[in-house]
Amino acid sequence: MAPLSHRETEIVQLVAQGCRNKEVAQKLFITEGTVKSHLYIIFRKLRVFNRRELRRFANVPVVIESPNRRTNRV
User: Which residue range(s) make up the domain with 11?
Assistant: First the structure.
């Protein structure tokens, strides 16, 4: 599983709280389209297919990418 960036983690947390894309966008000062793009990437990284699965996944500690650590990606 690929690690989530800080921004992706913020989005997961807001979605887990029940926020819709528009609300997430407003809270993070980004466009709704950017939220959708992030969600697409998050779904692929976590291998989930919808917001319901993402909320369930959010109850488990999430792997966060450290900005000071380099990761080897395939």
Answer: 6-58
